[in-house]
Amino acid sequence: MTKPESVLIIGSGAIVIGQAAEFDYAGTQACKAVREEGVRSILVNSNPATIMTDLDVADAVYLEPLTVPTIERIIARERPDGLLPTLGGQTGLNLAVDLANAGILEKYDVKLLGTPLESIRRAEDRELFNDLLAKIGEPVLESEPCETVEACEAAAERIGLPVVIRPAYTLGGTGGGIAFTPEELRTIATSGLSASPITQVLIERYLGGWKEVEYEVMRDGAGNCVTICNMENLDPMGVHTGDSIVVAPSQTLTDKDYQMLRSAALRIIDELGIEGGCNIQFSMAPRKDVRDWEGDPSEPLPYFVIEVNPRVSRSSALASKATGYPIARVAAKIACGKTLDEIPNAVTQRTTAAFEPALDYCVVKIPRWPFDKFALGDRGLGTQMKATGEVMAIDRTFEGALNKAVRSLEFGRRTLLWEDPAWRDAKAINLSATDTRLWALMAALRRDVPIADLATETGVDPWFLERLQRIVTVERRLLSEPLDGELLLEAKQMGFSDEMVGQLADRLAEHVRELRLQLGMRPVYKMVDTCAAEFDAFTPYFYSTYEQENEATPEPGVSTVVLGSGPIRIGQGIEFDYASVHAAWALQDAGRRAILVNSNPETVSTDFDTSDRLYFEPLDEEAVRNILENEAGETGETPTSIVQFGGQTAVNLAEPLWRAGQGIIGSSAEAIDTAEDRELFERFLQNLGIPQPPGAAVRTLEEGLKTAQTIGYPVLVRPSYVLGGRAMEIVQNPREMVGFLAQAAEAAEGRPILIDKYLEGREVEVDAICDGERVLIPGIMEHIERAGVHSGDSMAVYPPVHLDDEERETICRHTEQIVLGMGAIGLTNIQYVVLPRDASGAPQVYVLEVNPRASRTVPFISKVTGVPMVQLAVRAMCGESLESQGYEGGLWPEKNLVAVKAPVFSMSKLAEVDTYLGPEMKSTGEVMGIDSAYEPALAKALLASDLAVEPGTPVLLSLSDRTKAEALPLVHALHDAGCDLYATEGTGAMLDALGIPSTVVTKVLSGTHPNVVDVIEDGTVRCVLNTPEGRLTGSLRDGFHIRRAAAEKRIPCFTSIDTARAAIETMRGTVTPEVARLDEYVAR
Amino acid sequence: MSSARLVLADGSVFEGRAVGATGSVGGEVVFNTSMTGYQEMLTDPSYAGQLLTLTYPMIGNYGVDTAVEESGKIQPRGLIVREVAPVSSHPRSTSDLATFLAEREVVAIDGVDTRAITRRIRRHGVMLGVITNEPVEEALERVRALPGYDGIDWASQVSTAEQYGWEGFAEKHELRPAMELRANKAVVKPERAPAAGRPKHVVLIDGGVKRNIMRSLVARNCEVTVLPIDANAENVLALKPDGVLWSPGPGDPQVQNAQVEETGKLIGAVPLFGICLGHQVIARALGADTFKLPFGHRGGNHPVRDERTGTVTITAQNHGYAVDPEGLAATAEVSHVNLNDGTVEGLTMRDEPVMTIQYHSEASPGPLDSMGMFDRFVQMMDSAGGRR
């Protein structure tokens, strides 16, 4: 194969459930690998919060919407030889197929690299796939492709219920499910068909309770095949692998089983002719006492091939981190024509990529679900993925890795000891597949429920249950026996934290730690080296364990530890990984050794060549202190840490590290406390004379009611020290207050709850960099949605559109005063609300919130202004002034461009979750639209976030009384644009009065048809404008069904009048958006 | 559980727990990086005289199943692991590893830092050691008193004493048809359909053969007669074989001078296939030399390149010595090399039906990717038969 001269790489767009940070990791590796081969790399991705869209990662970076017309324009401009479609997740793969089907690849003579189009089709189309399996003699699961609900019913009849419904060409199993009854079949088939871009679902025999095993395999153009990793799911078939607890390597497969499936995997990738990486999922018969099946267990165990992903996937990111083998990098090199034996192995530096990793440890992955934010969502797990992220932990035993993984989850402060209070009665323990099943199993074991019963009920292999039982046994010993060295070592080897040991043995965590250190019991760190120590390796990638030999001995030079941000979750996304990665690079540029700590396998930060040393560990106090002490070595001097790039996870470690006498560079623990402690902050602002909405911190309901009474409703209620506006709400009256404070108190975990006057103004946000003397403000962002919508869910515009010079100056002045006054070094994020000027004529700028850390807008602002914010901040923390770095204080000159950041939601995947925008963050990711003017930039942002509305689109209107007046111009605009209008009763009456024709549809679901849900489901309307009144009122409940129906139908649903205005005003775009490289926009 | 320790010849001591039988055993300490297949490895005769360290930390997870054994007994002198799994689970498991080790009287140690042991061996080469419950000083004396591994003819110790036909043997010992054979049949497409009609007769010279070699041959319509290692060329040829397979086995090929000489007489007389020790013996018969590798190749992930096609295959390996191609007869050539260290992994002869591989095409444990070598052997016998 001849080497291409230039390659287009399609990224995966916004972070959504089923497609998270792993594709930034994959794409970044791919761009680097392609460049190493001397091939020009051209990248397109709409997600600004990624490392891959940094200007120095690819040769040409396009931050443009991922649509066929846009990519065609890029192809026409760049004329790449090849297209690499397998590194941008399902999004990238689907776009490649669309581009091919539209004849664009042929028109511009672009070759599809890595995986032939035919292979993609054969892997993704179940009928073709089953033919392929049959051809190579692999067992085919009884299944039928169906294109109508009736066909689904007929197929289910033939196969027999229960059946699995899998939509074709979707990610994360969107729209699929398991149907046990004819009713469920109809419901799921309907949603599955609408989720599939080709309106096809597969009705398949259900193998509930069978083992689920995955293989990651690679193949080069010469036909050489290797397996990188196999993985076994703790959760049996029936739970999406992205929602399963996964262990690598497999634990309960014999060598015969392992090799049988491995050989099958290699035959499949070979038959598909994939050149690159591929993920293959198998289902294998379990023990007969767990689930009975026909056949003889002394024969080779029956298995089925469940699914093939002909691309780099979430599992391949996990496999890369679990083994140290850089799958995406090797896949990209293969796509450029290299064979496996021609690609050097970066780990050993002398062998090649043609080998199979050998693990000498156990890896456990646990998904991170968003149910701390969506407590009312459907927590059941099935074929549709619901997790937003995941954590991984490594140890020499399963128990150790499991406990460490749970500690990494940061789901409240939940360890494996957590129990739902309802489980006190063993009968109340819910063992069905939900996000809490692991804890439920532990609870059942603690109540002596027999393992055999648990295995039969859940399908979880007894091996895992026996291992959990061993943890329970140690718990019991800790509860009843004196805590001696032997027992403590056993607990530590099983991954118990000092805190867990203390909780059981009735001691303070700090006392357990002291005892442990007295006994000389410190963790050692072992290397992840791909080869089980067979070769000398150079991967600076370590995990802790309690054993003999420590391999991570301190190295010369000044080291600084960057604390990462843990699993991707709502409110703490990939932006913080972006910042952590840049922090590590900046430290290296400053001549320091950068040490990274993180627990998230999907990220660039956990790539072993991002930092000088990577510790794959939980981000809790114990793990971080152990690492700091390990880095101290003989001299006893521990390295300093940076806490401001890892989101709230890292910031929360500031205080414990400070208490433990560990040094932090950048804003001190005191400065952080000033920003986060309500009373300190209030006094601080008062001293500076900067206004903030009146409010107070309260601890009881009485205090809360009194405060609200004093400052006047509506008020904003939220716990302090939480992220993403979790449990935050606008409360209109005392009755709502009573209901809401109870929820907020739980999320606050004993810390005070904040009550503020709700000011409904224009929300503005800045990020500032300070070296202790000067404050640089790279840019001001104005939100499209008014205050009250969480900043993470707001669209934000750079530079601001509606602020005058005086307001800008006021914002900059306040920012400088606050940052310098707090003594913040490095980055600070401040949110303001700007109210219309009062009689005095002075700007009305109130401070809403100060975050003494890198915010989620850092990558966005860095990219559009060209100011390397993290770099400047880190160098400032290391003692270099902004001036010495070539920057002055004040507001950075505004660029001659407009950039709009838009949130992206994953609501179709989270059943029963309300989608309306409010103070609690709900989005999972973001996109950016950039252009030379506001209108086209906004149009691009809307297009990239699937909120664009075309003229003539039929719209359903259901407006609250408060917003009706404001909505009038929008209604007129829709009418003028030829949109057929449908309205609920009240809204319809208003339209009638105005003389605007509309069809009234009832919102009473139990009454006549068609109702609001019908018109959404049957496609009569293709856009919804629904403005709810408030969380705790009837209108919110009424609108819930409308919003859910819209989410499931995947049509735009506007709940903020401001977002709707943006979309409607852009509808009849007069300017054609440009297509240009990011650096071209920025250079203007 | 009682304590035990591993003491190495360099004086390093690893404290752990005694598992299986108690007592002291000594041998050459080696490591294998396979993540599965502990029972196959424990019954592989090539581990005779050695203490086997398994680098995967949790060993015994899927219990034991006698159907997967590769010989009639436990072969290594002792077993060194991080953890003998306290729990096991598999549809075919009949017992757990701890019980199995006790029943078979295997001295084993767990709770030791096997990664530290592996790193020591990698840096300093394989060395002698003992697993013991004795004090360190006595243990060290015991290590010093051990005879060197290299000078001993281990292969003769594990070879069959008597000639036997495999099928009768398997029947007599009630070796239930190994499931891996059927798995192999299902997954490995023979390169071409085995010749119908008369089965091929393969004489197997046993220097420590694994049962999956016989099973793989039977699956390809061969009848197998197993001969002791000291069989001379006349004995072999008298059986009128269609081909001879020289088996894998333990120890230094330098001590097999007599076998090298007898094997030389077979070259050209009968199609010849050598695996591992067999490869080394045939190489010596072709004029090459052998040498000891610093810490051997033991695992299921070794990449081997076929020099004729350029394709790379992942192979199962278990050897402590390698062939130095210097001095190899001009009629022979290196057909396969190891991608990691460039050592010889296979030989062929240009004009004679002779092929050898250093790795284990029979897998068990390990990848099945080289099963096709048995097809090639059958093919070689077919063409040679046509010529004769």
> What structural category characterises the helix and strand content of chain A?
alpha/beta
Count of helix runs of chain A? 36
Distance between the termini of chain A: 40 Å
Beta-strand percentage of chain A?
Answer: 15-25%
Low-confidence stretches of chain B: 181-192
Spatial extent as radius of gyration of chain A? 28 Å
The span between the termini of chain B is 64 Å
CATH uppermost class of the largest domain in chain A: Alpha Beta
Work out the helix count of chain B.
12
Shape of chain B: globular
- The CATH architecture category of the largest domain in chain A equals 2-Layer Sandwich
Mean pLDDT of chain A: 92
The major β-sheet of chain A equals: 8 strands, mixed
Structural class of chain B: alpha/beta
List keywords for this structure.
heterodimer, A: 1084 residues, alpha/beta, Rossmann fold, D-amino Acid Aminotransferase, Chain A, domain 1, Dna Ligase, domain 1, 7 domains, eight-stranded mixed β-sheet, seven-stranded antiparallel β-sheet, 39 strands, 36% helix, globular, B: 388 residues, Glucose Oxidase, domain 1, 2 domains, ten-stranded mixed β-sheet, 19 strands
Model description:
The complex is a heterodimer of chains A (1084) and B (388). Chain A is of the alpha/beta class. In chain A, 36% of the residues lie in helices and 19% in strands. Chain A folds into seven domains: 6-114, Rossmann fold (3-Layer(aba) Sandwich), CATH 3.40.50.20; 116-138 and 208-310 and 313-357, D-amino Acid Aminotransferase, Chain A, domain 1 (2-Layer Sandwich), CATH 3.30.470.20; 142-206, Dna Ligase, domain 1 (2-Layer Sandwich), CATH 3.30.1490.20; 363-518, Carbamoyl-phosphate synthetase, large subunit oligomerisation domain (Carbamoyl Phosphate Synthetase, Chain A, domain 4); 554-665, 3-Layer(aba) Sandwich (Rossmann fold); 679-693 and 759-895, ATP-grasp fold, B domain (D-amino Acid Aminotransferase, Chain A, domain 1); 948-1067, Rossmann fold (3-Layer(aba) Sandwich). In chain A, the strands form seven sheets. In chain A, strands 27, 28, 29, 30, 31, 32, 33 and 34 form an eight-stranded mixed sheet that branches. A seven-stranded antiparallel sheet of chain A has the order 14-13-10-11-12-15-16, with helices on both faces. In chain A, strands 17-18-21-20-19-22 form a six-stranded mixed sheet, sandwiched between helices. The relative contact order of chain A is 0.08. With 388 residues, chain B is α/β, with parallel strands linked by helices. Chain B has two domains: 3-148, Glucose Oxidase, domain 1 (3-Layer(bba) Sandwich), CATH 3.50.30; 155-387, Rossmann fold. In chain B, helix 10 crosses helix 11. Chains A and B meet through strand 11, helix 9 and helix 15 of A and helix 3, helix 7, strand 15 and strand 16 of B.
